[in-house]
């Protein structure tokens, strides 16, 4: 099982995988609205080589046992992508060490959801199903935990709030 520190790596990889579909018009408007501008900026800043390495790592996402394995694959493929990933992991570890137990539990459960969404093959339907579950869990959190998560991970909170707004506004789940 992946350790929770891989969450940020998985989130970045997941968002980049979802964003990659935008280039080919394969993602509908519902999904395009949940991907934050930071992801687009990050993805646009990658070289062609970095994108190829990222795609390779994504294709093996369910085979990694820990963050070191992910980082080693990144390092073997692209030193610049590796450096970015190390900075993200370091940042993430620092942030995680400051969170309370409810926030940590939410993140742990979200890691499992991301793993399911990435699974063997990337599927928009799986992503949407897992997003709906994550939003429901997030909306059930107390305000203090939501605020803690929002302060710690503003991009993730934005995504969840965007999805939640769509669900509440449409009185239905993402379809």
Instruction: Please work out how many helical segments DSSP would assign.
Output: 10
From the N-terminal CA to the C-terminal CA, the straight-line distance is: 29 Å
Task: Give helix % range.
Answer: over 70%
Number of domains: 1
- Which range does the strand content fall in? under 5%
Indicate the radius of gyration in whole angstroms. Answer: 16 Å
Structural classification: mainly alpha
Provide mean pLDDT, rounded. 71
Give the C-level CATH assignment: Mainly Alpha
Can you summarize the main beta sheet?
none
Q: What best-fitting shape do the alpha-carbon axes yield?
A: globular
Which fold name is given in CATH as the topology? Four Helix Bundle (Hemerythrin (Met), subunit A)
CATH architecture, by name, is: Up-down Bundle
């Amino acid at each position: 099982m992946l350790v929770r520190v891989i969450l940020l790596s998985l989130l970045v990889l997941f968002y980049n995988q979802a964003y990659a579909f935008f280039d080919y018009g394969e993602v509908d408007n519902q999904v395009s609205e949940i991907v934050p501008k930071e992801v687009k900026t990050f993805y646009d800043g990658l070289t062609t080589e970095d994108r190829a390495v990222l795609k390779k790592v994504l294709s093996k996402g369910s085979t990694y046992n820990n963050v070191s394995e992910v980082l080693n694959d990144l390092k073997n493929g692209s030193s610049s992508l590796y450096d970015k990933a190390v900075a993200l992991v370091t940042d993430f570890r620092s942030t995680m060490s400051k969170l309370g137990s409810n926030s940590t539990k939410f993140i742990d459960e979200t890691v499992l959801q991301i793993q399911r969404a990435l699974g063997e093959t990337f599927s928009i339907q799986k992503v949407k199903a897992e997003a709906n579950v994550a939003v429901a869990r997030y909306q059930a959190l107390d305000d203090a935990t939501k605020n803690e998560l929002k302060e710690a991970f503003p991009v993730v909170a934005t995504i969840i709030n965007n999805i939640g707004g769509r669900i509440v506004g449409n009185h239905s789940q993402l379809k």
